[in-house]
Amino acid sequence: MTGILIKLFIKDKENVKDEKVRKKYGVLSSFVGIFCNILLFAVKFTIGFITNSIAVTADALNNLSDCGSSIISYFGFVASSKPPDEDHPFGHGRIEYITGFIISFFVFFVGIEVVKNSIEKILHPASLNVSNVTLFLLVLSILVKLWLSRFYMKISKTINSNSLKASSSDSLYDAFSTFATTLGIVLSLFIPFNFDGYLGLLVGLFILYSSVGIIKETLNPLLGKSPDKELVNKIKDILLEDDICLGVHDMIIHDYGPYRVMGSAHVEVSDKINIVEAHEVMDRLEKKILEELKVPFVIHTDPISTDNEEINSLRTLVENTVKEVDSSLSIHDFRCVFCSDHINVIFDIDVPFSYKETNKVLKKEIDNRLFEKDERLISVITFDRFFIN
Questions:
Q1: What is d(CA 387, CA 16) in angstroms, rounded to the nearest whole number?
Q2: In this predicted structure, what is the pLDDT of residue 126?
Q3: β-pair type (343-350, 377-384)
Q4: 275: number of Cβ within 10 Å
Q5: pLDDT value for 268
Q6: What is the rounded CA–CA span in Å between residue 107 and residue 303?
Q7: Which of residues 305, 320, 346 is at a domain's end?
Q8: What is the pLDDT of residues 205-253, one digit of tens each?
Q9: Lowest-confidence range among 48-62, 283-297, 350-364?
Q10: What is residue 366's DSSP assignment?
Q11: Where among 208, 223, 238 does a domain terminate?
């Protein structure tokens, strides 16, 4: 069914990085969500009214909020597809992250309402009116929600959409909650106990629990989460495939929305290489990253000495010393200044977020170890704690 809908409504469906194609995927998913959730709301609200079930009615309200979420998702896709302008030179892609965040709060507030109504039902229980038609419609609604979850997930993976991923999770949770509600109705036919309020409470708590996870997931891109490791590795592979590039560090990746990523990095080259030749190579690598990964990229070259035996020996000594302190540490931009009675060893250290010691404590530990190996060495260190390692 999903494939048929995509084939009917989206031309050039494989070109998902094209703004117009991506927008069509988003619009299709939004309208399918609106249609399905309005239909489910009408069915469940009618069932809830006939059977006097608070759990079913709460489930219906959840579907109504899902309809609102689909409407927000629609406007999010339309707005995020707007081209860059003077005020937003990197486009409007982050609007999609914002809509995903809003959708997650819809789920949260519905959970609160369900919990409140369920507690009221537990305190003031009422008998249920159940029929075979009621049970059939509830089972049908479960199947619709399971399909809708798979539909959202397929499109979210196709166009890399966090908001649709959140909608997929929400639909799956809806299917579980409707199953719990249906189970309670069936049990009430055989056991003289009103499960309705208690199951409604469980459904509400489940919705609240799941909404917190969705909120965290949709908030991460807005806060600036770490970039995809696969993308980082692909960029490093491209940079290091040329023999002129001796090392990569100080990489930064900026995320301005799905398929709107740009970045920069420092690349070490020999200090003997011609500056024009180095520029030509870096320019070619920037173009290759853009063509293959669709990532605008800026490269800064750092010249290092490669044929001075004394400097190479000191670099190895410092690298080993830093690794002795902690194996997760690494150095770059190494150079030396030779004075009459001492040697300044100047370098940067990449410090991962997992390393908790302060820069002052770390420098003291390195200095002590260097002094034990060679009393002439005085370190001049720049600590890099804000780049991708």
A1: 30
A2: 66
A3: parallel
A4: 10
A5: 92
A6: 53
A7: 305
A8: 877 887 887 788 778 888 878 888 888 999 999 999 988 999 898 899 9
A9: 48-62
A10: H
A11: 223
Among 68, 33, 64, smallest CA distance to 48 is for 64
Mean of the per-residue pLDDT values for the chain? 84
- Report how far residue 251's alpha carbon sits from residue 266's, in angstroms, rounded to the nearest whole number: 7
- Looking at residue 145, its amino acid is K
pLDDT at 307: 83
Structure tokens at 212: 């917190």
Helix and strand numbers, DSSP H then E, in the chain: 11, 6
In residues, how long is the chain? 389
pLDDT in tens, 221-232: 888 788 888 889
- pLDDT band at 83, cuts 50/70/90? confident
Can you name the residues that pair with 197 across neighbouring β-strands? none
Indicate whether 326 and 385 sit together in one domain: yes
Cα gap 26→35, rounded to integer Å: 14
Distance CA 1, CA 147 (A): 9
Give me the amino acid identity at 84: P
Degrees (nearest 5) of the Cα angle 203, 63, 13? 120
So what's the pLDDT on residue 369?
93
What's the confidence (pLDDT) of residue 130?
Answer: 67
Pair 28, 5: CB distance under 8 Å: yes
H or E stretch including 311?
helix 309-325
Q: Mark whether 150 and 116 lie in a shared domain.
A: yes
The token duo for 220 is 């991460």
CATH number at residue 241: 3.30.70.1350
- As given in the structure block, the two tokens for residue 80 are 């995020």
Q: Distance between CA atoms of 284 and 64, rounded to whole angstroms?
A: 53
377's tokens: 């060495």
Q: What is the pLDDT of residue 284?
A: 94
Token pair in block for residue 178: 């409707």
Q: What is the rounded end-to-end Cα distance, in angstroms, of the chain? A: 43
Sign of the CA dihedral 205, 160, 13, 34? positive
Q: Which domain holds residue 273?
A: 226-305
Contact in structure between 210 and 173 (CB atoms under 8 Å): yes
pLDDT band, very low/low/confident/very high, at 319 (cuts 50, 70, 90): very high
| Sequence-distant (≥ 6) Cβ neighbours of residue 352 within 8 angstroms | 328, 329, 389
Between CA 37 and CA 110 the distance in angstroms is 14
Residue with tokens 């034990």: 372
